[in-house]
Amino acid sequence: MVVNRVLEVTLVELGRVGLERLSVPEVAERAGVNKTSVYRRWPTKQHLVKAALQQSMEATTRPPETGALGSDLASLASSLAEFITSPTGLGIVRTVMADGDSAEAKALTATMWRGPARDLPRAALEQAISRGELKPDTDVELLLFTVAGAIMHRVFIERARVDDAWLKRLVKLLSEGAGKKPGRHHARSM
Amino acid sequence: MVVNRVLEVTLVELGRVGLERLSVPEVAERAGVNKTSVYRRWPTKQHLVKAALQQSMEATTRPPETGALGSDLASLASSLAEFITSPTGLGIVRTVMADGDSAEAKALTATMWRGPARDLPRAALEQAISRGELKPDTDVELLLFTVAGAIMHRVFIERARVDDAWLKRLVKLLSEGAGKKPGRHHARSM
DNA sequence: ACGCCTTTGCAACTCGAAGTTGCGAAGCGA
DNA sequence: TCGCTTCGCAACTTCGAGTTGCAAAGGCGT
Question: Is the entire prediction scored with pTM above 0.90?
């Protein structure tokens, strides 16, 4: 089918040139398809991008990816990093962040974070809590988002590689914290 | 002068509609200026945006803003949040992240993170270390970037408010860590 | 094989926004 | 007043997005 090839190319293009410079005719050409065929299914660039992102979310969150983690913080961060740096992830993040129109973007974001994509990492962290690796009162969602945010900053702002060494530092910071606790009287967690 | 008004409007527009939908003629109209006057100074949209971002960086990093912090983690996070959620910050982040062309974007990012914008928070954190509020071996840059990344995720992905309550949770996570070991033996996270 | 329906390719078209140009009118310092 | 620069204005060119009509496949049941 033409559909899959076009959507796949769309994702790659999103990650490559961003939403701004994404051209429907060019996507068609790279997919080896006439632009008319693309326009008939997806009237505008926005529709095409939306479809591409939605399919990729369904495709990548069903099986493993974000979910195939050993369920400690390190492997969770690793999985998240792998997802964000994938063509799909690059396209999604770039697109969602670039679009100031909150209506579309917010709906898309909501779609993204429903289902396995949200529940699996969450469950993994809660499992880590019950295994005693994390504090019982850990703010799971915040921790998850902070990892994602740090990776995003690394990729999009610093434009540096997300390698194991860096991930290790990130995990260390998030698990141990930066505050100087040892040897102080300190208002312990409630 | 016309210049200042145009660049200011450009920043606001960047934060409002993003780079994708930013229109030079519309910027001109909102600034109460003829589009020809804009085009004469800045040949293309890219030039205009670049100029607007550069000026705003110079304007916002000289005096207080990111630097006017009481120098502990909480006020640093607060300052960073204020900057990122400002029209300027929104415009910068959106633009830099949306542009897949690494040449332009990377140069811009490099420009942004040079000078006071980079040094002041860094100095603040190191000061906090010497005051004994943070661990001596704290990864200052990583901590700084993680705070920024978390805020970005909050603003652009979750699209939720960055208020004091949330900032407090973030600071708590980053200073105490999520790992279950109150300062006992050393770094052995994985 | 036949007809039927849908999908695709192709080329020519419309349309609107981006960016250009020439000229005339202000502004402003000497 | 002169001379230089900057701005407004309107008409223009250009280019890419999206459209349309038609013909050529392709799939599918009979």
Answer: no
